[in-house]
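User: Second chain of the day. Same drill as before.
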Amino acid sequence: MPLITFVAHDGSSYEVQAAAGSSLMQVALANGIDGILGECGGSCSCATCHCYLAEADYGRVSAPGRTEREMLECVSEPQATSRLGCQVIVTGDMEGMVVHMPASQY
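Assistant: Same format as last time:
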């Protein structure tokens, strides 16, 4: 289980062990991490699990699909490393990954 760090907009951070096969959204919700809402439950239809991957980590995950790219066009403050947490599946090689959360999901 890789250790992943979630960093809130205010700089506070939370290190959690993430089960392989879970999405970043599921990991955040299961660990009570504020900033990831996941209102649609992970169906890639609300973008309330928007997050930023550290630049070094962005290439460690699969590229976003068409639906995710379209949803990312609607998020507040998109960045080059924006992803929807529901679409990033944890693998064993994500040890040390850093996930930043935006100031707002709306």
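Helices lie at 24-30, 55-58, 66-72.

User: Great, on to the next one.
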